[in-house]
Amino acid sequence: MADGKNILIEVNNLKKYFPVKTGFMKMNYVKAVDDVSFYIEKGETLGLVGESGCGKTTLGRTILRLHEPTEGKIIYKGEDITHVDMLPYRRKMQIIFQDPYASLDPRMTVGDIIGEALDIHKMYGSKTERRDKINALLDIVGLNTEHANRFAHEFSGGQRQRIGIARALAVDPEFIVCDEPISALDVSIQAQVVNMLEDLQADRGFTYLFIAHDLSVVKHISSRIGVMYLGHMVELTKSNELYRRPLHPYTQTLLSAIPIADPKASRAKQRIILEGDIPSPMNPPSGCTFRTRCPYATEECAQSAPEFKEWEPGHFAACHHLDKIN
Fold first, then answer.
1. Per DSSP, what are the bridge partners of residue 293?
2. What is the pLDDT of residues 192-207, one digit of tens each?
3. How is residue 99 annotated by DSSP?
4. What gap in Å lies between CA 19 and CA 14, rounded to an integer?
5. Taking Cα atoms as reference points, which of 97, 205, 191, 228 lies closest to residue 152?
6. CA angle at 252 for the pair 249 and 256, rounded to the nearest 5°
7. Residues 235 and 36: beta-carbon distance below 8 Å
8. CA distance 80 to 58
């Protein structure tokens, strides 16, 4: 465990279930996030990876209380914020949304999109100060001051994402959830946005939860990486350690799918193919949720869920058979 004084945000046994009607007077639940625990230290980037639908985005939004948690605790700087009024914390905790096309109001100018948070939190004394702050934010993300009077539809995807980043920075936050901020962008633009996020972190000491599909990008930007499967955290460790020695069979599968530029090395590489489809989070398998696709599964895996615990210093995983697999 890290030094408690250096932990910015911590979640303990966090759950988020969405109710779904399955018939007359019948209710079931989508277990989007199911008993997840971790911490993020000040100034670090925690990467979060996993298949589509595994609960990454829901986890990020629940931490910010954009979704209300079903169970568990969210602790920010040692204070339990699970059930408090979030308005004072909105200044300190922000999000960069995945889709730069859907997350910007088409009826608002760029200046008003960025300035809205300044208005809500009354962070200026005059209209001149407000304009100067907006122009400074545009400059930080590499846009021109004249862009403030234009509308979002006039910009490219990469520029729109920069506007979204400027909006998140407007209130001078400490913690930012980056919800797949580059997945909707061209590859040539992705590197620019990632480099900008890294530069901002170096300058301002931001703490990131970086959610992504691209494992090579996550390795590049993250201090530590968490791997999610069907609402559960299955592995968590330092970035280099995860790539050097993945413990969980699901992590091993994900890493085996990363393309290699060298054709000879690519042919020699052993690709692990998972059987079957990812189960429904509304009706997950008993015991270990990964057991229906795991080559090492036994009856024990069906009977009880494995504990998410520290197997090596700083290396956490949830599996009954790690001692046999590795």
1. none
2. 889 989 999 999 999 9
3. -
4. 17
5. 97
6. 145
7. no
8. 19
> Other C-beta atoms within 10 Å of 249: how many?
24
The DSSP bridge pattern shows strands 224-229 and 45-49 to be parallel
Phi and psi angles of residue 308, each rounded to the nearest 5 degrees, phi first: -85, 105
Q: Which of 42-51, 73-82, 252-261 is least confident?
A: 252-261
Rounded to an integer, what distance in angstroms lies between the CA atom of residue 30 and that of residue 138? 40
What is the number of other CB atoms lying within 10 angstroms of the CB of residue 118? Answer: 18
* 3-class secondary-structure state, position 152: helix
pLDDT at position 1 over 80: no
Q: Which two tokens stand for residue 37?
A: 């625990």
Q: Give this prediction's pTM.
A: 0.91
Residue pair 302/289 in contact by the 8 Å Cβ criterion = no
Mean pLDDT confidence for 183-197: 85
The phi and psi torsions of 221 (rounded to 5 degrees) equal -100, -20
* CA atoms of 37 and 315, how far apart (whole Å): 14
Structure tokens belonging to residue 60:
């990020």
Distance CA 29, CA 31 (A): 6
Neighbour tally for 307: CB within 10 Å? 10
Contact between residue 133 and residue 116 where contact means Cβ atoms under 8 Å apart = no
- Alpha carbons 174 and 42: distance in angstroms, whole number: 8
DSSP string across 238-302? EHHHHHH---SHHHHHHHHTS--S-HHHHHHS-PPPPPSPPPPTTSPPSSSTTGGG-TT--HHHH
Q: How many residues does the chain have?
A: 326
Region of 2 please: left (phi>0), alpha (psi -120 to 50) or beta. Answer: beta
* SS3 state of residue 180: coil
Which residues, 6 or more positions from 233, have their beta carbon under 8 angstroms from its beta carbon?
A: 36, 37, 38, 226, 227, 308, 316, 318
